[in-house]
């Protein structure tokens, strides 16, 4: 399968932005070189969404897990009975036309998978910890519909722990605003 040069460039820029901004946020808080993934994740799943913001837990110190033997790019998809963490019914950011069940998907099994890298475990994403790390910073998503889906997923996860303002995706308690522009 050959990708168009524009699509390849767009995907490359999206990945560079994601893998540049997130580790830099961690390092600015004193994190180490190979442990940046652990700072955004927790062994505990996010709290259930009850329509209002939960009190964010304190940000724990990064653990001493040495991830040198962990290659996050090699691995497999494994069943995840704890998923999904949100659905189109619990997150406003998933648009009606993206409702797979409504438009013929017979089961929800496709939402119950997670990536398992070879040689290590990726902990569950902790939205309160992520918001604390990016407090007062800017976050940009550049991309196509895949980038839009990633942005929507992040918004759904963050919405579980903080009240947002719809106009610009502003999470006021963390002083972070997510701006986006979609082009079809």
Automatic annotation (TrEMBL):
| Protease in keyword set | no
> Where is there biased composition of kind Pro residues?
44-60
The Trichome birefringence-like C-terminal domain, residue ranges: 122-162
Q: Does the keyword Signal apply?
A: yes
Subcellular localization(s) per the UniProt record: Membrane
User: What GO molecular function annotation could you give as one example from this UniProt entry?
Assistant: O-acetyltransferase activity
Residue ranges for the region (Disordered) are 37-61
First-listed, main subcellular location of the protein, grouped into a coarse class: membrane
Topology in the membrane? Single-pass membrane protein
Which part of the chain is the Trichome birefringence-like N-terminal domain? 69-121
Per UniProt, which keywords does this protein have?
Answer: Membrane, Signal, Signal-anchor, Transmembrane, Transmembrane helix
Residues spanning the signal sequence? 1-18
Q: What family is reported?
A: Belongs to the PC-esterase family. TBL subfamily.
**What is the protein name given in its UniProt record?**
Trichome birefringence-like N-terminal domain-containing protein
């Amino acid at each position: 399968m050959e990708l168009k040069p524009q699509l390849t460039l767009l995907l490359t820029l999206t990945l560079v932005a994601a893998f540049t901004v997130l580790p830099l946020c961690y390092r600015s808080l004193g994190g180490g070189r190979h442990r940046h993934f652990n700072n955004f994740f927790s062994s505990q799943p996010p709290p259930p969404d009850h329509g209002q913001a939960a009190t964010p837990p304190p940000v724990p110190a990064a653990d001493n897990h040495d991830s040198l033997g962990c290659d996050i790019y090699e691995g497999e998809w494994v069943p995840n009975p704890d998923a999904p963490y949100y659905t189109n019914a619990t997150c406003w950011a998933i648009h009606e036309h993206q409702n797979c069940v409504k438009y013929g998907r017979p089961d929800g099994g496709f939402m119950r998978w997670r990536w398992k890298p070879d040689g290590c475990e990726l902990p569950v994403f902790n939205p309160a910890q992520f918001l604390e790390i990016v407090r007062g910073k800017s976050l940009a998503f550049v991309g196509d519909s895949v980038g839009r889906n990633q942005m929507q997923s992040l918004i759904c996860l963050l919405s579980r722990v903080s009240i947002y303002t719809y106009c610009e995706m502003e999470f006021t308690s963390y002083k972070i605003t997510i701006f986006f522009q979609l082009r079809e």
